[in-house]
Amino acid sequence: MPTYQVDPWTALGDPTRKAIFERLVDRPHAVVELARELPVSRPAVSQHLRVLKDAGLVIDRPAGTRRIYQVDPDGLAALRADLERFWGKGLNRLQGGRRGIS
Description:
The chain is of the alpha+beta class. It is built from 5 helices and 3 strands. A hairpin with a 2-residue loop joins β2 and β3 (66-71). The longest helix has 29 residues, at 73-101. The protein is elongated and about 60 Å long. 18% of the residues are buried.
Protein backbone atom coordinates (compact mmCIF):
# COMPACT_ATOMS: atom_id res chain seq x y z
CA MET A 1 0.00 0.00 0.00
CA PRO A 2 1.55 3.34 -1.00
CA THR A 3 2.01 6.06 1.58
CA TYR A 4 1.47 9.71 0.86
CA GLN A 5 3.52 12.55 2.27
CA VAL A 6 1.32 14.64 4.53
CA ASP A 7 2.35 18.11 5.67
CA PRO A 8 3.16 17.81 9.39
CA TRP A 9 1.58 21.17 10.25
CA THR A 10 -1.63 20.15 8.48
CA ALA A 11 -1.61 16.80 10.30
CA LEU A 12 -1.36 18.58 13.66
CA GLY A 13 -4.21 20.92 12.70
CA ASP A 14 -6.74 18.27 13.67
CA PRO A 15 -7.51 18.49 17.42
CA THR A 16 -7.62 14.72 17.92
CA ARG A 17 -4.33 14.17 16.10
CA LYS A 18 -2.75 16.97 18.12
CA ALA A 19 -3.98 15.34 21.34
CA ILE A 20 -2.53 11.99 20.25
CA PHE A 21 0.78 13.62 19.34
CA GLU A 22 0.94 15.43 22.69
CA ARG A 23 0.47 12.11 24.51
CA LEU A 24 3.21 10.53 22.43
CA VAL A 25 5.56 13.39 23.31
CA ASP A 26 5.18 12.33 26.94
CA ARG A 27 5.83 8.63 26.29
CA PRO A 28 5.24 5.84 23.74
CA HIS A 29 1.74 4.33 23.64
CA ALA A 30 -0.14 1.45 22.04
CA VAL A 31 -3.35 2.21 20.15
CA VAL A 32 -5.50 0.70 22.89
CA GLU A 33 -3.89 2.98 25.51
CA LEU A 34 -4.55 6.06 23.40
CA ALA A 35 -8.15 5.01 22.76
CA ARG A 36 -8.71 4.66 26.52
CA GLU A 37 -7.50 8.23 27.08
CA LEU A 38 -9.46 9.84 24.24
CA PRO A 39 -13.14 10.01 23.28
CA VAL A 40 -12.54 8.14 19.99
CA SER A 41 -12.53 4.49 18.96
CA ARG A 42 -9.46 2.33 18.42
CA PRO A 43 -10.00 2.31 14.63
CA ALA A 44 -10.18 6.14 14.68
CA VAL A 45 -6.96 6.33 16.72
CA SER A 46 -5.30 4.01 14.19
CA GLN A 47 -6.40 6.25 11.32
CA HIS A 48 -5.04 9.35 13.08
CA LEU A 49 -1.76 7.56 13.77
CA ARG A 50 -1.50 6.66 10.09
CA VAL A 51 -1.77 10.34 9.16
CA LEU A 52 0.85 11.28 11.78
CA LYS A 53 3.11 8.51 10.49
CA ASP A 54 2.66 9.62 6.86
CA ALA A 55 3.56 13.15 8.00
CA GLY A 56 6.80 11.83 9.49
CA LEU A 57 5.82 12.72 13.04
CA VAL A 58 5.55 9.25 14.60
CA ILE A 59 7.20 5.88 14.23
CA ASP A 60 6.07 2.49 15.45
CA ARG A 61 7.60 -0.79 16.51
CA PRO A 62 6.13 -4.21 17.16
CA ALA A 63 5.65 -5.38 20.74
CA GLY A 64 4.07 -8.81 20.72
CA THR A 65 0.68 -8.50 19.03
CA ARG A 66 0.61 -4.72 19.42
CA ARG A 67 2.44 -1.81 17.85
CA ILE A 68 3.93 0.88 20.04
CA TYR A 69 3.92 4.42 18.68
CA GLN A 70 6.30 7.19 19.63
CA VAL A 71 7.31 10.60 18.32
CA ASP A 72 9.84 10.46 15.49
CA PRO A 73 12.79 12.62 16.65
CA ASP A 74 13.57 13.57 13.03
CA GLY A 75 10.01 14.74 12.44
CA LEU A 76 10.03 16.76 15.65
CA ALA A 77 13.38 18.30 14.66
CA ALA A 78 11.90 19.30 11.28
CA LEU A 79 8.99 21.07 13.03
CA ARG A 80 11.45 22.89 15.27
CA ALA A 81 13.57 23.92 12.28
CA ASP A 82 10.45 25.34 10.60
CA LEU A 83 9.57 27.31 13.72
CA GLU A 84 13.09 28.66 14.08
CA ARG A 85 13.07 29.74 10.43
CA PHE A 86 9.69 31.48 10.84
CA TRP A 87 10.80 33.02 14.13
CA GLY A 88 14.02 34.36 12.63
CA LYS A 89 12.28 35.89 9.61
CA GLY A 90 9.58 37.43 11.79
CA LEU A 91 12.07 38.98 14.20
CA ASN A 92 14.15 40.38 11.35
CA ARG A 93 11.07 42.01 9.83
CA LEU A 94 9.97 43.44 13.17
CA GLN A 95 13.42 44.81 13.91
CA GLY A 96 13.68 46.31 10.42
CA GLY A 97 10.30 47.99 10.86
CA ARG A 98 11.28 49.49 14.21
CA ARG A 99 14.39 51.06 12.72
CA GLY A 100 12.24 52.98 10.29
CA ILE A 101 9.98 54.27 13.11
CA SER A 102 12.66 55.91 15.29
